[in-house]
Records
---
Amino acid sequence: METTSEVQSVSMPRIGDKAPSFRAMTTQGEIVFPDQYAGSWVILFSHPADFTPVCTSEFITFASMEEQFAKANCKLVGLSVDGLYSHIAWLRTIKEKIEFRGMKNVEVKFPLIEDITMEVAKKYGMIQPGESTTKAVRAVFVIDPKGIIRAIIYYPLSLGRNFDELYRIVLALQTADAFGVATPADWRPGDDVIVPPPGSCGVAQERMAGKEDMHCYDWFFCTKKLDKETVLKTILRE
Ligand code: BEZ
C-alpha cells in the first residue's frame, strides 16, 4: 500500500505559471479552461464534497458575492470530486432549503466541475494525500485575464474560506497592475500603496529628503496616497 510519503509526484502549479488547461463537464455545460476565460479574471476553487456543511456555507457565501466579483471582471469556477448529478442535487438543495446567515434562495450560477476521475484536481495539486486521498482540499487559484496564475491559497478540509479576503486579493492584484504599485499588509482600497523601490542612490536621497509626494518609513519603504474612488473607478465595472 502507498503511504503518503511514497505518493507519486504530484503537479503543483505555481504563481506565474500558465494555468493548466483542461476541458470539463460542469453544472453549466462543458468548459474549456482557461481559454474560455481569456480577458477575465477567474477564481478556480475546489471543495472536498457536495452535501457537507462547511462547503455548503462556502457556496452560499460565494454565490451571494458573485455579482460583486463580476463587477471586478472576475468569474468563479468550482470543482469537487463528485459527479454531475450530485452537484445538481446539492445546488438545488442549497437554493430550496438552506438559509445561512440571512442568505437564502441562493442560486449558484457559476459552473461547478464534476471531477470524479480527479484529473483536474490532480493537475492543480488539489489532492493532498496527507489530508485526503479522495477529496480535494480547499484550493483557490486566482488567474488573470492572460491565463496566468497570480495567487494560490490552500486550506484544509475543516476550515471555511474568508471570501472577503478573496475579493481583497482580486482588487489588490488589479490595483498593482493598473497603478504599478504594491499593496501593504491588510491593504484595502483607499489605503496608501507602496511605490517601487528607488533605482538609484540619488532617488533614494530625494525620497528621504521629502522631495516626492510620498511618505517614506525608510529609503526602501515609501508609500503614496491612492484614493478609493480612483481605485474603484479604474478597476470596477458598473
Ligand atoms: C465540510 O464541508 O463540512 C467538510 C467536508 C469534508 C471534510 C470535513 C468537512
Note: The beta strands are 22-26, 29-33, 41-46, 74-80, 112-114, 138-143, 149-155, 193-194, 215-218, 221-224.
---
Amino acid sequence: MSDALIVIDVQNDFCPGGALAVPEGDAIVPGINALMERFDAVILTQDWHPADHLSFASQHPGKAPLEMTEMPYGPQVLWPDHCVQGTRGAEFHGELNTDRADLIIRKGFRRQIDSYSAFFENDQTTPTGLEGYLRSRGLTALTFVGLATDFCVNFSVLDARRLGFEATVRTDLCRAIDLDGSLAAATQAMAEAGADLSAA
Ligand code: VGL
Ligand code: ZN
C-alpha cells in the first residue's frame, strides 16, 4: 500500500478566532478525520515559528500585515504573528484526530526563512525531511487537505509534483486565505503541475 494523507497546518491560528484565521478553517476538520480511515499513512504538518520570525510584520518596522517585503530568497508576504512555538495558536485544532498521525512535520522554525511547503522552505532548497520519509516508506501517492489552499497546500502540492509524487487535492477539505486572486492562481498552478483537484 502506498497512499498517504497529508494534512497541512490545521492549527488554531488558522481557524476562526486565530491570529491568521482562514474563513471556515475549522469546517474541514470532521471531513479530514473521516478521510484518515482510508489511508495507509497519515502525516500532519505544523507551522512552528519562533516569536521573532522574519515572516512576521512585527519584525519589520513600518510594515503592516499582508504587505510585501524582500527576503534573500525573493518576495515574501508579511503575516501577523502566528503559530508561535509552544502557544495555543500553534496547537492543532482540538477536534483534529492527531492520534491517527504517523508523523508530524514541523516547519518554519528557522527565523530567517519562511516555510510554506511541507517539503522545502521558501528558499526552495532547504529540505524538511518529508521527501526522505515518504520514499523510505514507499509512499508514492499523496492526498492533500488543510490550510491554506493558496499558500501551504499550494506550495506543498507543487513540490510534490516536482519530486515526482502523485498528488490529489481534496478541495472540499481545504480553505483559502485568498489575497489578491491567490486562490485562483494557486488552483491553476496546481492543475498545470499535474495535480488532481477533486471535491469528493
Ligand atoms: C500559512 C501563511 C503563513 C499556511 C502559514 O499554512 O498556509 N500561510 N504561514
Ligand atoms: Zn507561517
Note: Strands lie at 3-8, 41-47, 68-71, 74-77, 103-107, 141-147, 166-175, 196-198.
